[in-house]
Amino acid sequence: MKKRNICELLSMKNNMNSKYYFTDETILFRQPVQPEIGDEIVLRFQAAKDDAVSVVLVWNGCRMVMNVSEERDCFRFFEARVRAGKEKASYYFEISEAGKTKGLMYYDRRGLVEKTEPGFSFCVFPGFVVPEWIQGAVMYQIFVDRFCNGDPSNDVLEGEYLYLNHQPVKRITDWNQPLELLDVGRFYGGDLQGVWKKLDYLQELGVEVIYMNPIFVSPSNHKYDSQDYDHVDPHLAPLVLDGGEVLDENGVSNDEATKYKIRVTSPENLKSANEYFIALVEEIHRRGMKIILDGVFNHCGSFHKWMDREGLYTEYAANDHEKGAWQSKRSRYREYFRFTGAEEYESWWDNLTLPKLNYEGSQRLQNEILRIAAKWVSPPYCVDGWRLDVAADLGHSEAFNHTFWKKFRDVVKKANPKAVILAEHYGDVSPWLQGREWDTVMNYDAFMEPVSWFLTGMDKHSDHYRADLEGNAEYFWDTMKKNRGAFSWGSYLGAMNQLDNHDHSRFLTRTNKTCGRLASKGAEAASKGINWGIYRQGIVMQMTWPGAPTLYYGDETGICGWTDPDSRRTYPWGKEDWLLIDFYKNMIRIHRKISACRTGSLHGLLFSNHLIAYGRRDNQNWLVTVINKDTREREAELDLTSMGILGKETLCRVMETTEKSYNVGKVFCSAENGKVKLLLPPVSSRVYVCQKAAELL
Fold first, then answer.
1. How does the average pLDDT of the chain come out, rounded?
2. SS3 of 491, please?
3. What does the pLDDT look like over 105-127, one tens digit per residue?
4. What 3-state class would DSSP assign to 635?
5. Helix (H) / strand (E) containing 650
6. Cα–Cα dist 20/258, whole Å
7. Which residue of 34, 355, 556, 572 shows the fewest CB atoms closer than 10 Å?
8. Torsion-angle region of residue 77: left (phi > 0), alpha (psi -120 to 50) or beta?
9. Is-contact 302 352, C-beta < 8 A?
10. Dmax (CA) of the chain
């Protein structure tokens, strides 16, 4: 670019009221937000009323001059109408001084920029509709064995079977017993009855969607090594005797000798477990809640009848054709796996308990998984969607994975059009969120990791601390903008925003800024030096940032823990932190009551060292979140004009957190000419809303 043009750009930018410039993919600026093929789309752009500028929409490379559709207060709104085709469309905006073709500025997902880049264009995916119920929904993840033991009579017994023929499983009778490094075969007894018994608690907390870690038949407590995709594990539901008698929690017909004789995976128990799950889903739906299951389809377990390494199904096989792949080279399941030798097969991360499924080598395997995918979202089970484990690693090539997930989407959406497909994925999600495969993802790159770096300086495993990222507001905002660009707006609002989960250290532990794991530091160290002020800041951000805020069971009562397995401690029933639970209830209430929290635009307001502020707005209300991570009191001046807050405006503070406590009392202050000055305590956060929104709380 010539020097003259650079000077013109800088001059133009200085002369523009750039703080007024805004557009995004929300209903305020795009209608409809999720267009169908053939829909007319209205696109709007907000500029300063006093700026003599022209705005051009660049739609799929074609330039279209936008017309002024409205002037209101200090704003001028430009509008253009386009038609959705069958394929993805990309667009951005050119802004220049009226009557000039030089001195162009551009507006894409990053905001006002001097140069466009394809990866940051706004996008339309005609026909791609992320279910509205997941957008901004409050979710709750349950690791079933550690959540609540609702029926001790179905517990796994001490030594009931051997894990991998050498490790007897353990029944842990003390719910508060610490975890061990080799935790996979230790069962605390959490079950579906426990989930049912705590539905009142979850509803009172404000939960709208329950996501369960795997619940299908499996010899481990985590159940990511499935033994049977068609049945819920009977140890998670009421067990029955061979004659059909149900074992009750008081021990009727349940002496140890009798229980050892029960074949847990008998047809009666498998049928009973599925029927109980149907009843549980019906109850969840009756309460107006949803449920998502964990689909582990990259690999199964070595116990699975398809492999049968442990010989559990051999005696029931009529011939070699019916035997598992490990038991016979002539097995019809042999093609389901990649064998590299007589007794060697490809496995997930070299874990022999997790044989990797060989999709490219077996159409029958593909058909089986697609059948299972449709089965659980269809009557009588009626599950509301899938969370897909290590989804991008499913096959042996990315090209195949894209092909398979398109098939998966087709069968799931045909069976249940409102079912959600939510994948676990690290890195660039854009190739998978083009409207033909996944709906959305677990939001690591555009939420969990940037939030953790900014607030704690820790990575999500508590393995690394980076002082250069702790409190680095500019890095935080730039990372959020960059990674947000991989999502459509519907996918972004439906993304699972977690602070922690079963694979990573607890966020509360990360606030101690200590690197460690269970083996190196021990369990007690995970609770030392924690900072409740930072923890509350994380929760405030989780409940006010775009996406679906997702609690990992026990977050709301302050469970600590290093990364897996220590992050899978039992929920401390009877020892709950009710003050923290009450704080969660209040933040969830704000999230659910204020519509801007669910679907509103995101406005970056201030990003200074250890200090950030952002706003959300829709056509009903707005809110502003301010985070002071500094250990000293800070002043902040916020310019709210881009949010349409002009002149004198009343702000109502509805939440303040500090290192020691929080306060939900309403405190009012005023913005003058769209600006407000705040004095923020050390390690604090505040949430402000408009008067209309305050009346809802």
1. 92
2. helix
3. 999 998 899 999 888 899 999 99
4. strand
5. strand 649-657
6. 74
7. 572
8. beta
9. yes
10. 91
Do the Cβ atoms of 634 and 628 come closer than 8 Å? yes
Inter-helix orientation angle 532-544/449-456, to 10°: 150
Summarize the confidence of residues 655-664 as an average pLDDT.
96
| pLDDT tier at 315, thresholds 50, 70, 90 | confident
Strands (E), 531-576: 548-552
Three-state SS at 596 = helix
The tokens 């002037």 sit on which residue? Answer: 71
C-alpha to C-alpha distance for 666 and 67, rounded to whole angstroms: 42
Host H or E run for residue 649: strand 649-657
CA-based nearest residue to 455, from 647, 335, 283, 612: 612
- Cβ(121)–Cβ(92) below 8 Å: yes
* Spatial CB neighbours of 402, under 8 Å, sequence gap ≥ 6: 431, 432, 437
In degrees to the nearest 10, what's the CA dihedral of 334, 339, 345, 348? Answer: -80
pLDDT score, position 244: 53
pLDDT above 80: residue 275: yes
What is the pTM for the complete model shown? 0.94
- Average the pLDDT over 128-147 and give the result: 98
Residue 14: how many other CB atoms lie within 10 Å: 8
pLDDT of amino acid 508? 98
User: How many other CB atoms are found less than 10 A from the CB of residue 177?
Assistant: 13
The separation between CA 196 and the C-alpha centre of its own chain, rounded to angstroms, equals 23
Nearest of 52, 51, 57, 55 to residue 20 by alpha carbon: 51
Classify residue 182 by burial, with Cβ atoms within 10 Å: 0-12, 13-18, 19+. exposed
Instruction: Return d(Cα 220, Cα 184) in angstroms, integer.
Output: 6
Q: Which residues contact 18 (CB under 8 A, 6 or more apart)?
A: 112
pLDDT for residue 618 is more than 70? yes
Confidence at residue 125, expressed as pLDDT on a 0 to 100 scale: 96
